[in-house]
């Protein structure tokens, strides 16, 4: 099984990814939070800079419904040395979907088809896709799936929720199953061939991959039990993307690989690097605290009385106060 780090805007930026890599490093492939226009801001430039993404297999993500923007960004990513790009047609945020982007694009299949025709014809890099299973109703999925299976994508990452579900309520595994019935996973021999091709010739790799079009499951994997349920239910899936579960427990991918749970030392080192990393790039203390709070929104769940801890962190008025709240919590921390 391969484990992917989900793109999470505001959380899994380069500071987070590097801190994770240095202290856990159990993820096989990292996906960057989305970029949506050719005019990159300073934060985005820093996030995609190759020097900030050393040592990992990493895929940048694009969110747009304009083929020219997609193709322009793809050229830029190729120039920067990236080997693949990911298209986001899953984002449920209202500001995104209102413009027909992210999962909002799933409502306009003829436009989505024209867009996919153009990007798959002209892209200078292989393309993978991250999608939801519809906007408002499960009945939308068969037509979306049918459309997506026509393109030579390197992989299709499915979060089996509708846009209207946002991130809540149960996932809809039977719709992922529908995709699995259509697309089997590669054999070990085929996987080895792909890797070989990938080193030699990227476009040929993309084409070979699409004959199998491997699926990646994403959604609500928080524990080893959740993971086992996914493995049992989707036997042909050989890749799982971890989002909130990994932020809550950065040792999760290791546990799923059968390694020991995270240790206090790992957690301390990780938090120190995260803190130092943000302090190095963000001038205002309150903005550093804000960034760290985003991580703690999930991480606090791994602590007994996590809600209380989160409140204390939220109330921290200074970096020193944050440090002392966190040091006390980590010193008492035991795996729950
Ligand atoms: C705060 C937040 C930010 C996210 N940002 C992105 C993003 O930039 N691109 C993307 O494709 N998905 C994004 N997602 C969705 C996640 O990648 C993932 O699909 C979702 O959280 C479901 O997986 P999980 O249940 O393992 O968390 C975001 C989710 C959250 C909660």
In short, what is this structure?
The chain is an alpha/beta fold. The chain contains 16 helices and 8 strands. It folds into 2 domains: 255 residues, Aldolase class I (TIM Barrel, Alpha-Beta Barrel); 69 residues.
Radius of gyration: 20 Å
Structural class: alpha/beta
- What's the average pLDDT? 94
Number of helices: 16
Tell me about this structure.
This protein is α/β, with parallel strands linked by helices and 336 residues long. It folds into two domains: 2-256, TIM Barrel, CATH 3.20.20.70; 264-332. It is built from 16 helices and eight strands. It has helices at 14-23, 42-48, 67-80, 94-97, 109-122, 141-148, 173-182, 188-200, 202-210, 224-233, 244-248, 252-256, 264-281, 285-299, 306-315, 319-332; strands spanning 2-5, 29-35, 58-62, 85-89, 127-134, 156-162, 215-218, 239-242. It has an eight-stranded parallel barrel, surrounded by four helices. Strand 2 (29-35), helix 2 and strand 3 form a beta-alpha-beta unit. Helix 1 (14-23) runs antiparallel to helix 13, helix 3 (67-80) packs parallel to helix 5 (109-122) and helix 13 runs antiparallel to helix 14. The longest helix has 18 residues, at 264-281. It is globular. The two termini are 25 Å apart. Bound molecules: flavin mononucleotide. Flavin mononucleotide (FMN) binds next to strand 2 and helix 11.
Give the topology:
Layout: E1 2-5, H1 14-23, E2 29-35, H2 42-48, E3 58-62, H3 67-80, E4 85-89, H4 94-97, H5 109-122, E5 127-134, H6 141-148, E6 156-162, H7 173-182, H8 188-200, H9 202-210, E7 215-218, H10 224-233, E8 239-242, H11 244-248, H12 252-256, H13 264-281, H14 285-299, H15 306-315, H16 319-332
Parallel strand pairs: 1-2, 1-8, 2-3, 3-4, 4-5, 5-6, 6-7, 7-8
Helix pairs in contact: 1-13, 3-5, 8-9, 13-14, 14-15
The site of flavin mononucleotide has 23 residues, from strand 2 and helix 11.
